[in-house]
Design brief:
Chain A: Its main location: membrane. The complex is a heterodimer of chains A (448) and B (222). With 448 residues, chain A is α+β, with helices and mostly antiparallel strands. Chain A is built from 9 helices and 12 strands. Chain B has 8 helices and 12 strands. In chain B, the strands form 3 sheets. A 5-stranded parallel sheet of chain B has the order 2-1-3-4-5, with helices on both faces. Chain B folds into 2 domains: 113 residues, Response regulator (Rossmann fold), CATH 3.40.50.2300; 95 residues, Orthogonal Bundle (Arc Repressor Mutant, subunit A). Classes of the chains: A alpha+beta (448), B alpha/beta (222).
Chain lengths: 448, 222
């Protein structure tokens, strides 16, 4: 349940609903209370005022203390709607006096004004009125006129008011919900776009920009995002340019060095032992450095988008067989290369990818290494310990080495990155995983 | 004899040393102008030409050399950029290697380009107005000798060996350039362009070397 309210949208909607509910209830409540009072007052006055007036007119005719006949006449004058009491006696006509609350009866004994009380102890609400008859000097005569009237009609009106108020609230709520959704969308869409852009930026697409039109806070945020992305892109471009420049500058001296490595190798046998070791070392390292610089240049070309595909129809099984044969791996690899899988690929790049994957499996995995051409993919699997789970997401990163203890000598550290870039240039993918039976599995999928 | 045109003294010295060890006679030049001059004087068997040169660059040097002689030219490209490769091939280079180059790679390319076409004891073939003499290693067009570079000659002999049959670029690369594996098919395309310019009546509407889209080339007069 908690996660349900974690998003901005549910929170906004909840806030809108609550606000609407509160507002509607407050408005309806206030209206209800006011209307109720007005209706009740009106009902009371319409009943009470004529009664009080009648009592006022009749009072001077009444002899005090009154006889039973006087009480009856008075009650008759009041059309039987009221009961007239005097010290334990009562008029014969008029309602039964049990409706008079004892406490009210007591209060009226000393009261010089009309007393009334709204009561709800019966199924239908009603009003009790007590009128004391006073002497001319204002003292009580002991004669009391009591009456009651139902408040049913006004209560019904009040009830229908309440119902209307609730109906209003329930009608407004969906509107509020709709408004909440609209507002949420207005806020959330730019937020979501920013989120998607940030994810894209994070996954390396540094040319990602968001629409920053507008003048609100979100547009401000979008502009900030765009500026950050621009800076990031510029920084990355500069560092890549630097790598490309460095590699380029290394090429000329490396060409000179590389040219003479064969001489060192050939003559090492006739050199003093230390010198021979040194010569072979220089020669071997020069070759490695050459490979590294070549790989760096290749990666730089990918970064600068200067590599292009030369697509042609090729039999994939044959292409892979040629790749293995060209590197002398035919006997080292267990290959499953059916004929008839034809794909439109750049064969040189496919060769680079397969060579890097198989080379990687031979170096880091365990024998036997298997290469299988499937109708939609090429699978390279080994029988080694597999790739540690924490290394899997980084296996195609540049210079990433799963085993930190692994010596530098096993390759440029760019092989898998170059393979990945080549697959991407084709619009395909390479994925790395561990087989259930152990060993790493690299799957190359190209849209052939 | 190899003519090495390279401005960097260390590269010149290193490559010169390596080539000499392979048994080549090496002449070196530090600029394009000097290279063109040396070509005139010394008639080398092959030119190894750097692209980045002071003064006239490798492309222009290549064009000037092409005007002078049918000598095979291998470009040394420092970038491996597609643009450089295409421009180099268009300027008339037979092959290219990317710096830093391993000596054995350069040596293999040189040997492949230098390998003479072996004369074959076969009759003179006539294809339209084109006469191919495999024994004399000559090509006549309208009875006039066509000046072909060794690579162009090899390409034409290879294509015309099986008239009407399609050869893939890869097959051509292996047969003509001896690229044992996955050469750059643009070498074939560039060489075909140059060959067409020399033997076709209208190079843009070839009558001898036909392009078979997606596969390769086919030889056959209309």
């Amino acid at each position: 349940m908690r996660s349900l309210f974690r998003g901005l949208r549910p929170r906004l909607m909840a806030a809108f609903l609550l606000l609407t509910l509160l507002g509607a209830v407050a408005a309806a409540g206030a209206t209800y209370a006011t209307a109720r009072n007005l209706l009740l007052e009106d009902a009371q006055n319409r009943f009470m005022n004529p009664l009080v007036e009648d009592v006022r007119i009749y009072a001077p005719r009444l002899t005090v203390p009154p006889r039973q006949q006087d009480l009856d006449d008075f009650a008759t004058y009041l059309r039987g709607s009221a009961v007239v009491l005097f010290e334990g006696r009562r008029s014969r006509s008029g309602p039964d006096q049990s409706f008079i609350p004892a406490q009210m009866r007591e209060s009226l004994k000393t009261s010089r004004t009309v007393l009334w009380q709204r009561r709800t102890d019966l199924p239908h609400p009603y009003v009790v009125i007590g009128i004391p008859l006073l002497h001319a000097d204002g003292t009580a005569t002991g004669v009391e006129v009591w009456s009651l009237t139902s408040l049913d009609a006004p209560q019904r009106a009040i009830d229908s008011f309440a119902t209307a108020a609730w109906v209003g609230v329930s009608l407004v709520l969906p509107l509020a919900l709709g408004l909440a959704l609209l507002t949420a969308r207005g806020v959330l869409r730019p937020v979501r776009r920013l989120g998607a852009a940030a994810r894209a930026l994070g996954s390396g697409r540094l040319d990602t920009r968001v629409d920053d039109r507008g003048s609100d806070e979100l547009a401000d945020l979008a502009r900030t995002f765009n500026r950050a992305a621009e800076q990031l892109e510029a920084t990355q471009a500069a560092s890549r340019r630097f790598v490309a420049d460095v590699s380029h500058e290394l090429r000329t001296p490396l060409t000179a060095m590389s040219a003479v490595t064969a001489v060192l190798d050939e003559d090492a046998g006739s050199l003093p032992e230390d010198t021979a070791v040194a010569a072979r070392l220089v020669s071997a390292e020069t070759r490695k450095l050459t490979r590294l610089v070549n790989d760096l240049m290749e990666i730089s070309r990918f970064d600068e988008g200067r590599n292009v595909l030369e697509l042609d129809d090729w039999d994939i099984g044959t292409a892979v067989r040629d790749t293995l044969a060209a590197r002398g791996w035919t006997s080292a690899v267990d290959a499953e290369l059916p004929e008839g899988v034809v794909g439109r690929v750049d064969r040189r790049r496919l060769d680079v990818v397969v060579a890097n994957l198989v080379g990687n499996a031979l170096k880091h995995g365990g024998a036997p290494v298997r290469v299988a051409v499937r109708p939609d993919a090429i699978e390279v699997s080994d029988s080694g310990p597999g790739i540690p789970p924490d290394a899997l997401p980084h296996i195609f990163d540049r210079f990433y080495k799963a085993d930190t203890a692994r010596s530098r000598s096993e390759g440029s550290g760019l092989g898998l990155a170059i393979a990945w870039e080549n697959a991407r240039l084709h619009g395909g993918t390479i994925t790395a995983a561990n087989a259930p039976s152990g060993g790493a599995v690299f799957t190359l999928r190209l849209p052939w | 004899m190899v003519l090495l045109v390279e401005d960097d003294p260390s590269v010149r010295e290193g490559l010169g040393l390596a080539l000499r060890r392979q048994g080549h006679d090496v002449r070196a030049a530090g600029t394009g102008e000097e290279g063109v001059e040396r070509l005139r004087e010394s008639r080398p068997d092959i030119v190894v030409l750097d692209i980045m040169l002071p003064g006239i660059d490798g492309f222009e040097t290549c064009r000037r050399m092409r005007v002078q002689a049918e000598v095979p030219i291998i470009m040394l490209t420092a970038r491996g950029d597609d643009f450089d490769v295409v421009a180099g091939l268009e300027a008339g280079a037979d092959d290219y290697v990317v710096k830093p180059v391993e000596p054995r790679v350069l040596e293999a390319r040189i040997r492949a380009v230098l390998r003479r076409t072996v004369p074959e004891p076969s009759a003179v073939e006539r294809h339209g107005s084109l006469v191919i003499d495999r024994a004399g290693l000559q090509v006549l067009k309208d009875d006039v000798k066509v000046a072909l570079t060794p690579t162009e000659l090899k390409l034409l002999l290879e294509l015309s060996r099986t008239p009407g049959r399609v050869l893939t670029r890869q097959q051509i690369l292996e047969a003509v350039w001896e690229h044992d594996y996955l050469g750059d098919s643009r070498l074939v395309d560039a060489c075909v362009q140059r060959l067409r310019a020399k033997i076709e009546d209208v190079p843009s509407e070839p009558g001898y070397v036909h392009t078979v889209r997606g596969f390769g080339y086919r030889f056959g007069p209309r």
